Every structure is written in C-alpha cells, then in structure tokens.
Amino acid sequence: MAENGLNEKQASKVKLYTVALIYTFSIGFSFLAIKECVPYADSLTILAYRYDFALLGVIVWFSVCRLLGKQQKQPKDRPKSKLYLTAGFYVGFMILQITAMFFATSVEGAIVFAVVPIFAKIIARIFLGEKSTILQNIFVVITVAALIVLIILEATNLTMSLTGIILMLAASISMAISNVFMRYVRGTFQPIEITRTIAIGGFVLFNIIVWIRAAIKGDVHSLLDPVTHPQFLISIAFLGIFCILLSAQFMAYMLAHMEIVQSTIFGNASTAISILAGAILLGEPLTIHHIVCALLILAGVIGLALAPAPAENSGKKLGD
After folding, report:
1. Where would you find the membrane-spanning parts of this chain (predicted)?
2. What pTM was computed for the model?
C-alpha cells in the first residue's frame, strides 16, 4: 500500500511539472505568434481576437465534455464573488499591461513584470499565510535578478517614464493578486471554471472596446480584415487557445498544487525562453550573457521546485 501511495505521489508530481513546462513554453513562444499578428492588426484588436478564440476553445471544451458525459455537476450555492475577483484581476492585468505599453517599451515592461513572483510571495504571505525558507528565497532572488540582468543587457535604450512604471507595477500586482485568488478558490472551483470566467470576461470587455472604437472611427472593416489572412488566423488561434485558455488552465492547476511563488516563477522562465527562441529561431545574436543568464534562471526555477517547503504551508484562506 505504501509503495502504491508513493507511486501515485510521484505520478502526480510528474504530471504537475509537465503542466508547468508546457505552460512555460507556451508563454515563451507567444511572442513569435504576436510578431506574426502585428502586420495585420493593432495590439487591442489582437487582444480582442485572442479572447474570441479563448472563448471558442472554452465552448468546444464544455461541448465535448457534455457529449462524452464527463461534465461534472457542481454545487449551485458556491460563493462566486472570489471567482469573479480572480478573473477580474487577471483581465485587469491585461488592461493595465496594454495601457502601460503606451508609456514604456516592452523591454521596460518585462523588467517590472519580472518581479511578479516577489509581489505574489508577499501577498500570499499576508493573506494565505504561506511562508518560505531561506533557500527558497535565494532561488527566487537568483531567478529574478538573472532575468532583469538579461533584459537590461538586451535593451539598447531604457527611458522609463513615471506613468509607465506605475502602470506596469499595477499590472504586476494585479497579476499577483489574481494568482493568489486562483490558489484561494482551488478547493471550490475547478481550473476550467476559472478559465471559463476569465475567457468570458475578457471576451465581453475587449470586444466592446474595439467595436465601439471602430464604430466611432467609422472603420468596422479594419476589425474584420485580419481574419482574411491565414497567417493571422493561425497565430491568433495559438495566442487565444494556448496562451490564454490553456495557460490560464495550467496556471490554475499549478496554483492548486504548488505554492504561489513556485507557480509564478515559471513565468520568469518563459521570458527567458522568449529571448532565447528569438536568437535561435529568428537568427538574432546569441551571446554569452544569454547563455549564462538563462542557466541561472533555469537553476533558480529548478532549485525552487526541488527546495522543501515549510511544513506549515497548508494554504490558509484569505482573511483567516
């Protein structure tokens, strides 16, 4: 019996880190798809279409589950407010991120977003009572510091504005809070339910914005033109289904089985993968600092994953 229990535990851990790796690579390669979309639409239109495909994926998911008879009935009296807050902060992160890009470059944004694990760690400590060991903190610092150094070395011109910094910090905090809520509601809502709420919220909000904007400009045709290009459709489908639907699903699953800081640190690894993928797939220069920083980030992520967590981290609820 003990051996069976150990095997199940090992299998569960393999599944968890497989999900984490898929999440990391999906987000890491998203920039390639975004670059493919840029010639056909602006950032807000791209984001609206991303949520269109995310919602389409959710509809297909639930339709298939219903046809196969695998859709589980859930209690109707569950508190929905925390679920809506989880989705609200996630979508809020997207809004703040887009707005921040008007005042700062993507490189500058990446530097600020690199500290999301630290924000999440602080918020989780306050509201969930999750503690961390000195060894865990060392690995977090290594990963965050290596990523920031890598981004700075990649930048040719950093001109941070105060408005941009404030908006990007707000976006990072919003994402961190969303992650904390995802972990909080893990015992009440399934990951797909969290993802569905995020997809519906983003779909409604961003489509209202882009259609109102198009109506005011009298240029509705510009919204429909991108979908006539197969290259745009393929890329936006990847961004919506993999980088919103599945990534939110994977993050919710990770947060249900990992501490906040362990889950969010994989986002830093995805940023490093984005830079390295650009060097390998797009022929951009690959230097020694790429390799050294990437190895440090990888070491930090692996170290944090393997480092033993404090025994008292039982996942207290908000406000307990």
Report:
1. 16-34, 46-69, 81-104, 110-128, 135-153, 159-182, 194-212, 232-253, 265-282, 288-307
2. 0.79
